[in-house]
Amino acid sequence: MDLVDGFGRVVRDLRISVTDRCNFRCTYCMPEEGMTWLDRSEILTFEEIERIAQLCVERFGVDSLRLTGGEPTVRAHLPRLIHKLGQLRLANGDKPDIALTTNGATLRNIASELREAGLDRINVSLDSLRADRFLAMTRRDELHNVLAGIQEAKHAGFHPVKVNAVIERGANDDEILDLANYGRDNNIEVRFIEFMPLDASNEWERKKVVTQDEIVSIISAVYPLTSVPARGAAPADRWSYNDGKGVIGVIPSVSHPFCGDCDRVRLTSDGQFRTCLFATDETDLRHLLRTGGTDDEIAEVIVNAVGAKWAGHQINQVNFIRPKRTMSQIGG
Ligand code: SAM
Ligand code: SF4
Hints:
The protein is α/β, with parallel strands linked by helices. It is built from ten helices and twelve strands. It has a single domain, classed as TIM Barrel (Alpha-Beta Barrel). Helix content is 29%, strand content 17%.
């Protein structure tokens, strides 16, 4: 049975946050100090995560699972979870696609282990190629490790490795072309992300958003681009370089919201089910999991939550309300 919302959109992608903690403090995500972490007892166990994922895959045909956080690689024994999720099968016998979004700090040591555990795809966040700026943006001196981690991911057989770069005006917008060149030279798809109002420090302002149109015009002025048609439900719009040197993506959540094609739902690390990154409400699956809820009961709650999914976020409306939780607490 498909999970269909009230606007006819079918859920195919479950984003699972495995932790709210992180070894970085990116300025557009977390403050340097003062985050309140969930208690260990509040975080779903691997068995609890598997149970929800199994329901979504086997019963509802969800064919894409993405692990995120916080920083997912700080969760102990992550490969064990990946291995378990890799055993799940859709009704037609296919394995769901399993992906990971990571800051890449430890990837040089764990890329092959993740691959062997059954991870299919990897996205690494990288907002600057300059060590001093990387330090300023992430508050960690880790650029060399992240770059090495990306290369190690390629060696481990991840193809394509994608790089996510949040572009913030005044912070790193002068590196758009450098990041594009990095992708071209290393056969990596760079995906530029518009800065979203989900930072814990509440410093987001519309004028700090570098829009998709600006990003594409900066790159295409040097390297002519052709739009790759039909995004489907994927969040990124894509362009290919006319000279054949790869593809870029832009995730234009603010300037060109793509809610009409959304096929995503989310599970926070403390077991709250969310139908949108920007949703202001959540459905408590952890309580059901821990009080003997049957699969049928959990499935019914998921169906009802998806049925109530809104048409889309309101970032561009005057009545936009920021969700109580921030990006790292929800799972980006
Ligand atoms: N820690 C991992 C990482 O950084 O890749 C995974 C979690 S992180 C919250 C997921 C993605 O959200 C990253 O690509 C990050 O750059 C992006 N992100 C975080 N805060 C953001 C914001 N305010 N606006 C846009 N993207 C943001
Ligand atoms: Fe950590 Fe990712 Fe947030 Fe950066 S964006 S602070 S790496 S969770």
